[in-house]
Structure formats: C-alpha cells, structure tokens
Amino acid sequence: MKADFDYTGCNVFVVGGTSGINLGIARAFAAAGARLGVASRNPDKVDAAVAVLGSAAGPASGYAFDVRDADAVEAGLAAFAQEAGAIDVLISGAAGNFPVLAKDLSPNGFKAVVDIDLLGTFHVMRAAYPHMKRPGGSLINISAPQSTVAMPFQVHVCAAKAGVDMVTKCLALEWGGEGLRVNGVVPGPIDGTEGMARLAPSEKARERVARSVPQGRLGTPEDVARACLFLGSEAAGYVNGVILGADGGWAVAGASMGGGLGG
Ligand code: NAP
Ligand code: COA
Hints:
42% of the residues lie in helices and 13% in strands. Strands 3-2-1-4-5-6-7 form a seven-stranded parallel beta sheet, with helices on both faces. α5 (155-175) links the parallel β5 and β6 (181-187). The protein is α/β, with parallel strands linked by helices. It has nine helices and seven strands. Bound molecules: NADP nicotinamide-adenine-dinucleotide phosphate and coenzyme A (COA). The site of NADP nicotinamide-adenine-dinucleotide phosphate has 27 residues, from α1 and α6. NADP nicotinamide-adenine-dinucleotide phosphate is lined by residues 16, 18-22, 40-42, 45, 66-68, 93-96, 116, 142, 144, 187, 189-190, 193-196.
C-alpha cells in the first residue's frame, strides 16, 4: 500500500494487530515509517505479525496478552513505552464475535463478548493513557456497524460496540484538554476477514452484503487503515470524539439498499 502519510519517528501500538483488519492497519503504519508494537492472545500470531511489521524505524515489538486481563494489558503497554518512548498512536481493535440468536445465547456468551470488546477497550485506553505523547497523541477504537444498527444474531456485539463508542466519546471529552484525541473507526464489511467468515460464510451471502454497500463492493483492510492514518495524523489535529465510518456508505444505507424500493 502506498503510504499517504509520513509517520517517521512515531511509535504506534495496535492491540489485536496480529490478524485481519488490525494487521492491515499495523502494516500501513509500518509502511509509513512508524515503529510498531502489536499484541494479542496467541504468541504464535504475535511472532508472525512481528516478523512482517518491521519498518525503516526498526523491528516491531510483540506482546502476548488478553485484553480481559487489566494487569497484563498495563504491563504490555508499559513495556513498549519503556522500549520505544511515548506512544504517538494507539489503536484498540481486539474483538470477539459469533452469530447466535439472543434466545440461544448463554449469559457467559454475552459476557465473553462484552468483556473482550467493551471492558477490553477500557483496559487498553486506561493502560495507554499515561504513556501517550502529549500534546499530539491519538487513540483510535475500532468499532463496528453494530454499534448503531440493530442486527439479528448480534445482541452481544451490538451492546458491546455501542458501549465502545461511548467510551470513545467520554474519553475525547475528558482527555482533549491534555492534547490527546480519541476517535473511533467503523469498518464496513471487510473482505477476507475472520469477522466476514463468521457473519457471511457463503459466497452468496458475501455477494448479498456487497450489493448492500452503496459503493457496491466489500471493503479491504487498506480502506480501514487509511482512515486510521488520517485520524492519527496532524491532518486530523482538530478531530476529536468522532466515530468515522470506513464502510463505503453502509451506515447511511439502512434498509434502503436491500429493501427493493425504487423499482
Ligand atoms: P480478527 O482477524 O479475528 O482480529 C481480531 C484480533 O484481536 C486478532 O489479532 C486476535 O488475535 C485479537 N484478539 C481477539 N480476542 C482477544 C483478546 N481477548 N485479547 C487480546 N487480543 C484478542 O478479526 P477482524 O474481522 O479483522 O476484526 C478486527 C476488528 O474490526 C474488530 O474490532 C471487529 O469488531 C472490527 N470489525 C470487523 C469487520 C469485518 O468485516 N471483519 C467489520 C466491522 C468491524 P488472538 O486470537 O491472538 O487473540
Ligand atoms: N454460539 C453460542 N455461544 C457461543 C459460541 C457460539 N458460536 N461461541 C462461544 N460461545 C459461548 C460459549 O458457549 C461460552 O458460554 P458458556 O460458558 O455458557 O458455554 C462463552 O461463549 C465463552 O466461550 P469460550 O469459548 O470460553 O470463550 P473464549 O474466551 O475462549 O473465546 C470467543 C471468545 C467465543 C469470542 C471466540 O470466538 C474468540 O476468541 N474470538 C476471537 C476472534 C473473533 O471473534 N474474530 C472476529 C472479530 S469481528
């Protein structure tokens, strides 16, 4: 991917940056010259990501932790900050999802997703806060269309991601005066990802989803990465508390693209 922004001299940490969309985001920042830190649960995935995320600034650093463990998150972010210096851009994107009707979802299943997506986001924001560069630090939470659009099979994810957007907005309010910006990015349906494999597993479903996007195609990790490159940069220096869609217009389409209206 061509780097549209220059992140030379910047430290960027991507939580959940070892696969899918978040790995695409991490790659984009590395291509733009940043020094990368990445984290997720599986040490093999962390090692594999570290191996591909070296940049002109040097090799990436990897940390294996579960965002549900507040102490482990704190230790991971402190270790990166000690090694690399203050964090310029923090991306929080770890999430869990599986499709299930509410009547079939156990309390622990609901809790698992809320713990990863919502509580995990809070743990990451809280742990990153003391290490962010001031002024100029940018924190970005990866949300989902479920945060504003009710969907069947997704009560746990809708509830969790709606909460994530509110964490973003509240922290933008509390931390803006310290020269930090906190924003969210909402990817649309992104091709070739774990999320799409779980929610639209067949070719027919993929095509149906693609038709429902106003831009007429599924997105790519690079589409989402460009939104993050913008939000992390000086170009977005007065953008704070925004939940930015990188979704081909999916969020504004509502029922209009699938409802057969208009002949
Ligand atoms: P993915 O490849 O499964 O990425 C999830 C990442 O989070 C992985 O690196 C995973 O690695 C890590 N992770 C999961 N649970 C964790 C935990 N408890 N603690 C620490 N790390 C954890 O999924 P994706 O589809 O690319 O989704 C990435 C993000 O985009 C998510 O926030 C998702 O909600 C959002 N999103 C996706 C789509 C889509 O079309 N795919 C659309 C809208 C929004 P480990 O397994 O090693 O922990
Ligand atoms: N349908 C219904 N319930 C499910 C389920 C499914 N497909 N998958 C898991 N659950 C339930 C489990 O039954 C369990 O509840 P119980 O104790 O009442 O039986 C609960 O969720 C926790 O399951 P567990 O497997 O212990 O969770 P985990 O912490 O090991 O894994 C998940 C978390 C379930 C979210 C797992 O799918 C995951 O790790 N996902 C990360 C990757 C991902 O989802 N990527 C897409 C991002 S958009």
